[in-house]
Amino acid sequence: MRPARTIAEQLERASWIRRMFEEGARLKAERGAENVFDFTLGNPDCDPPPGVLEALRAAAGENRAGVHGYMPNGGFPEVRAAVARHLAATTGLPFDPEDVFMTVGSSGAINVLLKSILDPGDEVIVLMPCFSEYPFYVQNHAGRMVAVETDERFLPVVGRIAAAITPRTRAIILNSPNNPTGRVYPAPLLTELEALLARLGQPIAVISDEPYKPLVFDGVRQPETAAIVTNCAIANSWSKVFAIAGERIGYLALSPRMEGRESLRGACTFNNRILGFINAPALWQRVAARCLGVGPELEGYRRKRDLLCGALTRMGYDAPKPEGTFYLFPRSPIPDDVAFVRLLAREGVLGVPGRGFGRSGYFRLSLTVPMSVVERSLPGFERAIGRCRQ
Ligand SMILES: Cc1ncc(COP(=O)(O)O)c(C=O)c1O
User: Fold this and answer.
1) By CB atoms within 10 Å of each CB, which of 67, 124, 176, 314 scores lowest?
2) Which residues line ligand 1 (CB under 6 A)?
3) Same domain, yes or no, for 283 and 307?
4) Residue 45 pLDDT
5) Which residues have a Cβ under 8 Å from the Cβ of 103 and sit 6 or more positions away?
6) Are residues 163 and 248 in the same domain?
């Protein structure tokens, strides 16, 4: 049996992170794991915050009837109510628990929503560079991705979005703080986008993918997209902020201002089921509901960001400090980002070429490694840029 042609093609396109991962495994076997500095995966290395571990112990000790069984496909009613209350407090909007769906991560949330709104050939605008899985999520539901380039500072350009909208446009995916660039989209930009959508009057869902929302530095704050954009659906998860990416817990929340949200409710509930998730993990729903006020461990990431950006800049890299997330997206010292990432790997440092995110000429580094790895990786970065100058 061979894989379907579509999947074979997708595998080929999706292979950058996987290739670097395999390259890393090969280098580690050859040189010893302690001599390879792997910045490829956005998989937090720190422990979950103590409050989350306490909540996990409390939830695991709960012995009520039904806590381990199926529940309504959208999640435990009391958990959905807690998330709705939390969203009401942060956005100032009266989120309805019926419009909150507990999902298998933010990726589950985006897939549930796209499946709920796309007919074959419907279009989804994605701002480039982007999280490398978005194109596949759109294709999962027979949609057509329309890529719109951000500007040279990786901020969306509303005029370019306007030019890309057609009668088939059903959604725009926004991701701020952004993977891979670390940019936070400022409120005036979201206001400008809202004005465009209001002018067009066409029902276009703005999917605000927010798994890095509290991971922001230097007093920067991620604006509440739902408070600014009317037709907003929030996709969120605790994978990154609580360092629990393997536990698979997140949610989808439709704004109380979203047009037609009542008719979408049934579709989202049904799709959470038939995409094969059935429901989000029961134990982690109950943990998440207890931890809505818990924040991430920011200081460690900030220190690693400052050390690496400072050192790279001194070496001659163009490596601006990200405002949020735990990613750096420096410019490749040579135009061919794949060639540069290979050169870097020969020096024992692993990153992902920008073209894996739809923007050549850059590379992504994830700070989800111990500080000692950042420190010991620096000579490798220095040798790599030195070779580019030879
Ligand atoms: C922008 C963005 N969205 C969604 C996801 C999916 O995360 P999860 O499904 O674990 O919430 C990721 C993971 O890297 C991401 O970077």
Assistant:
1) 314
2) 42, 105-107, 131, 175, 179, 209, 211, 237, 239, 245, 250
3) no
4) 86
5) 109, 112, 235, 237, 250, 251, 252, 272, 277, 280
6) yes
> What proportion of the chain, given as a percentage, has pLDDT over 70?
100
Among 273, 290, 307, residue at a domain's last position: 290
Total structural domains within the chain? 2
**Which among 16, 43, 133, 238 is the best mutation to test ligand 1's pocket, defined by most ligand atoms within 8 Å of the CB?**
133
Distance set, CA 344 to CA 111, 353, 382 (Å) = 35, 11, 10
Question: Stretch 59-81: mean pLDDT, rounded?
Answer: 95
* Residue 56 in domain: no
Q: Would 53 be classed as within a structural domain?
A: no
**Which of 131, 178, 252 is the pocket-test mutation for ligand 1 (most atoms within 8 Å of CB)?**
131
What are the strands, taking DSSP E only, across the chain? Answer: 37-38, 100-103, 123-128, 144-149, 169-175, 205-209, 232-237, 250-254, 327-328, 349-350, 352-353, 363-366
List the structure tokens of 30.
């050859």
Q: Quick one: pLDDT at residue 25?
A: 85
Average confidence (pLDDT) over 226-253 = 97
* Ligand 1 atom closest to 238 (CA): 11
Look at residue 75 and tell me if it is in a domain. yes
Tell me the residue range of the domain where 108 lies.
62-290
Residue 390 in this model has a pLDDT that exceeds 90: no
Q: Both 186 and 249 in a single domain? A: yes
Looking at per-residue pLDDT, the higher value among 295 and 90 belongs to 90
Model confidence pTM above 0.90: yes
